[in-house]
Design goal:
It is built from ten helices and twelve strands. It has 277 residues and is an alpha/beta fold. It folds into two domains: 132 residues, 3-Layer(aba) Sandwich (D-Maltodextrin-Binding Protein, domain 2), CATH 3.40.190.10; 94 residues, Periplasmic binding protein-like II (D-Maltodextrin-Binding Protein, domain 2), CATH 3.40.190. Strands 1, 5, 6, 7, 8, 9, 10, 11 and 12 form a nine-stranded mixed sheet that branches. Strands 2-3-4 form a three-stranded antiparallel sheet.
């Protein structure tokens, strides 16, 4: 009786041990590898890098009016990085306010669309090292007599901004400014020209381009705030991919590619930290 009980206990113990071992093997086989969600690994299989951009934001990313092809600073930078990563760039055009949600949902691997690095965005996304530095600037009507030098000067006035942008966040933080957000740029410039708003706040490099190319009676206003850093946004938890992007950007900065592209599109070198004013 005792021997049978011992043997039975041993059999049950061996059965349990085998079951545990089998479960561990199955878990190891079914579990995804450490960086399975990392686009660097996923893209290695697909051979592409899915890049979100707006496509209507010159000179950063837009369609050439003659050829219809995507072009601009962001587009050139993204293509160069994809080449260095040995990936085929696949551009996905998304309205600005939906770019970061699309990135979060996994529809794209990165956002290369003049995404400013802000503390709020860093809570939700990881960023590459900055590949561009800029500053916010106002646009006003050519016949504007009021001298808006800071955002505080616009209290009690109407200010146009891009929907979901850092410009919008900063304008709303001032308080007492009637902030009107727009999904795209042309609408806010038209409203400004027709007097529906008093000023537009946008990226300084973009303002320079708009003022030179618009047919509307507008001019560049004051630069406001401090310099801003622009980086490539990606989902959190992808250290290998983030390192690969930073390495590619560092190479592009070291060999002069970023400076060349900056001079090509903006006429100034904006790819390095600006000197203190």
């Amino acid at each position: 009786m005792v021997d049978e009980a011992v043997r039975g206990g041993r059999r049950r113990g061996m059965t349990l041990a085998v079951a545990v071992a089998v479960a561990l093997v199955l878990t190891a086989l079914c579990a995804p590898p450490a960086d399975a969600a990392d686009p660097a690994n996923a893209s290695a299989t697909r051979g592409v890098l899915r890049i979100a951009l707006e496509g209507t934001y010159p000179p950063f990313n837009f369609r050439d009016p003659k050829s219809g092809h995507l072009t601009g600073y962001d587009v050139d930078v993204a293509r160069d990085l994809a080449r260095r990563l040995k990936r085929q760039p696949q551009f996905v055009l998304i309205e600005w306010s939906a770019i970061l949600p699309a990135l979060s949902a996994g529809r794209v691997d990165v956002a290369v669309s003049q995404v400013i690095i802000s503390p709020e965005r860093e809570k939700a996304f990881d960023f590459s090292a900055p590949y561009l530095y800029s500053q916010f600037q106002l646009i006003v009507r050519k016949n504007e007599r009021t001298n808006y030098r800071t955002l505080a000067d616009l209290r009690g006035r109407k200010l146009g901004v891009r929907q979901g942008s850092v410009c919008e966040q900063k304008a709303r933080a001032v308080g007492e400014i009637e902030v009107k957000s727009y999904p795209a740029v042309p609408e806010n410039l038209q409203d400004l020209a027709f007097g529906r708003i008093d000023a537009v706040l946008d990226d300084g490099l973009h303002v320079n381009y708009l003022v030179r190319h618009t047919q509307l009676p507008l001019k560049a206003g004051a630069r406001v705030g401090n310099g801003e850093r622009v980086g490539i946004a990606m989902r959190k938890g992808q250290p290998q991919f983030q390192h690969a992007l930073d390495q590619a950007l560092n190479e592009a900065r070291a060999d002069g590619t970023l400076r060349t592209l900056s001079l090509k599109w903006f006429g100034v070198g904006a790819s390095r930290t600006p000197p203190p004013r």
